[in-house]
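hi! just following up on the protien thing from before. the input was this:
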Amino acid sequence: MTDGEPGPFVYTVPARRALADDVHDAVLGLLMDQVIEPGSRASIDGIARRLGVSPTPVREALARLVSDGLVAKKALKGYTAAPLLDSDGLRELFEMRRLLEPYATRSAAGEIDPETLDLLDQLCEDVHRSGEAAQTGEDRFKDYKEFANQDAEFHRLIAAHSGNTLLEDAIVRLRSHMHQYRIYFKHGVVAETLREHEAVVAALRARTPAEAEQAMLDHIDKSYERISEDADYTAA
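and the predicted 3d structure came back as:
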């Protein structure tokens, strides 16, 4: 499907919960699952009919998704779904991550408090549990949404303790997790991600900035390799 008209998958907003956040999550699912095809028009009326809501919350949801880089708005043309990252776009995204996140992790190593370290440990457990559950699904966004959100929160929490609010904001604004999971979620990624996250937390807990920086750099490099070398992504 190209514009949010009804298709093989059912995306609905629960009755009595047709609020902005619910509609936003539903539209996000349409984009992440490519039901609204990359590069195609995102019809406000078509999406509203699919979800059984008025056009107003759909319009608000699309406006929010512009800031995530998943939707673009063009004068006189309305909203369109952003195209998938090509190989150059993917490389540039990860180059930015390599510049920002290892430094943020190094900066956090001497500042992060025990409570936050415990929270990062919990996030590792949560990522593993939700990721395992996702692998029993259909590789649709509803199946791995929790995993993606927890993965993003892990990185955000470290950036938040870097001592640099501009750096934290830059990392969050990349919205890298949404972009990479839009093109890639594969069985096997969960165990690898868990090991890499645990290495980062161990270095942070040991208060060894250089090791923390290297652990995050290794994680980002391996994440890039998993996507860029995947045959399905190359074909896409």
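The chain has two domains: 20-81, 87-235.
The chain has a mean pLDDT of 86.
cheers
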